[in-house]
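Researcher: Can you fold this with magnesium ion in place?
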Amino acid sequence: GSTIGVLGGGQLGRMLALAGRAMGYRFATLDPTPDSPLGQIADEQIVAPYHDAEAARKLAERSDVITYEFENVDAGVAAMLMSESYVPQGSELLYTTQHRLREKRAIEAAGVQVAPYREIRSVEDLQDGVAAFGTPCVLKTATGGYDGKGQWVIRSVDEIAEAYETLARAKTELVLEQFIRFEKELSVIAARSPRGEVQAFPVSENIHVDNILHLSIVPARISVEVKEQAERVAARIAESLGAIGLLAVEMFLTADGELFVNELAPRPHNSGHYTMDACRTSQFEQHVRAVCNLPLGPVELLTPVVMANILGEHVAPLLEWMEDEAGLPEEIAAKVHLYGKHEAKAKRKMGHVNLLTDDVEKAIRWVEQSPVWKA
Ligand code: ATP
Ligand code: MG
Ligand code: MG
């Protein structure tokens, strides 16, 4: 069968391969870590830094199609690969979504609103920006941030100098955003195929703890109008960007029903892991379909679901709980996914559990009292 080459060997790549394997594809991966979550199960692993052009060329030689599982792949390497192999997602989408300012401009160009923002090039810019937006407001590095790293919530003008100095060390542009007093955080994962077909997965309601996703709740507890609007927004951005494959769209919903897009990710997304057990097609299968130029699959939700992340500190209690599934209501089925990471460091994403339920409130209550997530 054909071989899919994946830049990056993390859990997103691993779950992509688990889905693609079932469809008969072989997988090769390039990742700096030997025995990465994808490396463990791939047909071939190339161990080298992401920006190593020679290693990337080697991946291209072994692959019929190339995709990526994280967005900080060197866009230059991606562009080079386009002349060596088939890279249906191109390098433009990476280039845009790697940089918060370019990303925000692209979202606005699609006719969708983002939180008011300013480019910050000096501490004077930051003083002006904080004066304009008021406090709190959020200073972010334009590139490289994740799980809330590379950002600073400025709560008082006294923090301006320190916030600027700290984030400026990252040697990237900075962006200041107005603080959105959101009622909920939502995300929609859209998929677009090379033939221009677009599908949006059901809206997920996301709850973060310490800037790391804790729960995804689907169906989201929002009105039908907001649901439809959120799905339209994601599809419109995917179309406007000419995205191929998955595009995750994170949004804020305010009390008066307004949506602001926070950020994009051109890849499978943690808030889409619920689709693995709860949708007719998973996000991973959908991405394989899109990059292999197959028809997209149906995305309907089969059951209400709550996805709960397993971080390093949750692994030991989870393994113990799995022996008898103590206290799990009969109406809830718990589907455990673990990524094969060796070191269960605190806050590190190690796995997730999809709780298939008749009632999301029941599953949320169960998580909140469960010994697994108490740690
Ligand atoms: P991810 O791990 O999702 O890639 P990230 O580090 O790229 O995260 P963001 O998603 O931009 O960071 O922000 C992290 C969280 O901080 C958001 O999910 C939200 O809870 C909060 N946040 C970010 N920007 C704002 C804002 N402008 N107003 C209010 N809250 C915000
Ligand atoms: Mg991000
Ligand atoms: Mg985010």
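Model: Folded with magnesium ion in place. Residues 115, 138, 145-149, 177, 179-180, 185, 208, 211, 250, 262-263 surround adenosine-5'-triphosphate (ligand 1) (CB under 6 Å).
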